[in-house]
Give the backbone structure.
Amino acid sequence: MTTLKSYVYDRWVAGQGRPATLVNPSTEEALAEASSEGVDFGAALAHARDVGGANLRQRSFAQRAEMLRAMAQAIHAKRDELIDLAMANGGNTRSDAKFDIDGATGTLTAYAELGQSLGDARWLTDGDTISLGRSSRVAGQHVLVPRAGVAVHINAFNFPAWGLAEKAAVALLAGMPVISKPATATALVAWRVTELLVESGAMPSGVFSFIAGATGDLVDRLGAQDVLAFTGGGSTGTMLRSKPNLLASSAHVNVEADSLNSAVLGPDLERGGDSWNLFLSDVARDITQKTGQKCTAIRRVFVPRDQVEAVREDLLDRLATVKVGNPVTDGVTMGPVATASQLRDVRAGIEKLVASGASVLLGGTHAVHGLGAPEGRGYFVAPTLLAVEHGATADAVHDHEVFGPVATIVPYDGAAEVVALVRRGGGGLVSSVYSEDRAFASEVVLGIAPFHGRVTIVNAKVAGAWLGPGTVLPQLLHGGPGRAGGGEELGGLRGMALYLQRAAIQGYGPLVDHIAGVKRA
Ligand code: NAP
């Protein structure tokens, strides 16, 4: 059995005490154990802040970019091994695992390219120099400089590689050292990624640390110059952001939490047409990819009332081909959920939706034997399609996220009603409108945009170049208001704002220009 160690103060530290056990969710076989007990979190923070921070701040964006590129290469070189680990510890199919691992290298590479384009600078200017008098003798310039603390990253269980890499890429490029903590249950991939990064020698001393197991008193030790970026359940996020030390010090906290993402089928689309089929593919993919354990997965499927019957039939046809089982078995297209508690939560969630008026069209809470899994073992759940008659009264459909292969069809009548129903999600990561009708698409997109971090507009014209609404891209914002946590990640340079302090430098113009590195004509 593998023992996962933490990487702190440039050393691997084995935890003491009773470790948590990581299992294979298809077989329930124990794979590894992890404990962070005995890690000196005060020393870990001091080393990252003092040594790691200084190392990063003295490097230019182009040099930090080289580091990110080397990190991506180190991960990519062991892609096959990492895919196997994700299949074993995460219950991922091979293609789910690639999504996670390639997402990690892709995001690191995208930020490496961005860093390269920023060249020799070590911080950013924000806007032009502003003359504060008749001449340029008194001037002001906004700058964005790296915060002088540490960025603590706490990640969810579903994307152990991508979650680690997407947060690290942005913070490191901005110039902040990182302490990364994966969800313990699926930490095997993140731990191996860290081993690869350390072995590669890509990262200068102190810039990256890794916690295997619980965070101990780490979060309680954070202060004004530190950043906490969390991804996970809404209640954990609320508990963390409410910590007295974070509130008292105005520390910067970013929360990426739950989301009742939605897809809206426009009334203009005809059954069997290319746009209609794209809609069906996206919904079916989001139910099954990563066994529905994707923060961006479509949970609510809004369909014009007169098209509900057709959508039901077509979706059931597509889902009938899904083979649930141990991903190492030939033919399996959907793995188990990641943990026993996840399985309990998914079943309880389906019951909650049914109690709120949903009927089960496919799947449900019954025990499922996974192909290739030992009898009675594994955390398997069937792809589950539900439907409600009246969206307005099915409260749980709009406010309870079932983090598994579950979606609900909700009928609507007209653009105004669907906007109101989508908004009932209370703030989400992504919503998609499938339509070729400009008036309908405009009304719905603008109506739901204030409630989302990302809105996608889809029709057959994007087929071929379309990755689906669930794919988070480094160039575009990831996050969402309200229930989704109110956070913002990625979005190119925008994601770096969390790790940079905006300061207005004001005074004698030539000196302001010199300090800010501004050259005037
Ligand atoms: P979770 O139970 O909230 O755990 C998330 C992370 O928080 C894990 O690393 C966990 O560590 C850590 N954690 C839990 N209690 C903590 C505490 N008291 N102090 C410090 N850290 C603590 O969520 P999950 O089950 O991993 O993930 C599922 C949820 O994440 C879903 O609701 C999903 O919607 C959401 N999610 C959101 C996004 C997004 O981008 N918005 C992405 C993915 C997932 P341990 O594992 O060691 O407990």
Notes: The chain has a mean pLDDT of 96. Residues 261-473 form a domain with the Aldehyde Dehydrogenase; Chain A, domain 2 fold (CATH 3.40.309.10).
